Amino acid sequence: MRVGVLGGGQLGRMLALAGAPLGISTIHLDPAQDACAGQVAPVLVGRYDDPALVAELSRQVDVVTVELEQVPLGAFDHVREGVPARPPAAAVEVTQDRLLEKRLFRELGIPAPRFHAVDGPDDVKAAVEALGLPLLLKTRDGGYDGKGQLLVRDPAALAGAWDELGGRLLIAEEVVSFEREVSVVAVRGLDGETRAYPLVENLHAGGILRVTRAPAETDATLAADAERYAARILDRLGHVGVLAVELFDAGGQLLANEIAPRVHNSGHWTIEGAETSQFENHLRAICGLPLGSTALVRPSAMVNLIGDVPPAADVLAIPGARLHLYGKAPRPGRKLGHVTVTAPDEGTLLRRLASVRALVRIADGAA
Predict the structure, then answer these.
(1) For 306-320, how does the pLDDT look when each residue is reduced to its tens digit (9 = 90+)?
(2) CA dihedral defined by 98, 103, 109, 113, rounded to 10 degrees?
């Protein structure tokens, strides 16, 4: 089986690595000459919506998928007839627009922060009247890792808010008080079967995911809610493959924040911590193969390596730690790899995780 991937970053790289044992090969399309997936799989270099390149990609494969949601929707128009795109363009479109996402949550009865569309400078004032202050202004498209957002606390800041975010279509969201951020990664097969990985807890800093712990300490009701919400979204979008839902845990209620129509950073722990990794299950789903078990094998965690990498020998000296490097040149704020940590019990996991985090703080110069 041959899979075409729109995107050649670390997620595409890990898809390629997961496919090899199954006899599934990948070929990628990416604008970057040095796309890191190119170290393990062929890459066509060019725009995602280049008609000739997309047609060439689809000529060589049996199915096309995505590793990022920022792919221009026009790219799907150039996929060769008879080659399915999984997930479909309609599913990707919703996740490219924060307003469409929030409307989808409302349609499906999934709790989420209140919101207000901001189509121009005059709408900012209307949003304040509807939601109050403080509020969070976000670009409707293009935001990731905390980019494209502005917290407005003071009426005096309203006048320049529209211009500060580039004069683009925005969405205003109420600022909610929450205890932690969690996420659920789920997968839907061609036959509609849906499976979810355990709910995980995420720690962010500077808008970037730093640490994920699996499973999240929570009661069965919240975990079931997360799985049910993910299943509703997957079914409503006709999604095939992996999808992640980011949520706030606010006083014992989950509020949906964002959707990612792809394998997700908070699911990297599944490589060592679950019976079937998110990457393998995505490939299984889009290739029409039976889904693998999403059960947790042992308590697990993941630490992102941002901007710098600790010495490999120091990481590998920690029991249960596995190092995953993406083959990228270091630069501030760039995801260069991750470390997964597994342990037989929660107490041991916390001790091992603390050792990894100490190494990461030393590597990036943090206090």
Answers:
(1) 999 999 999 999 999
(2) 50
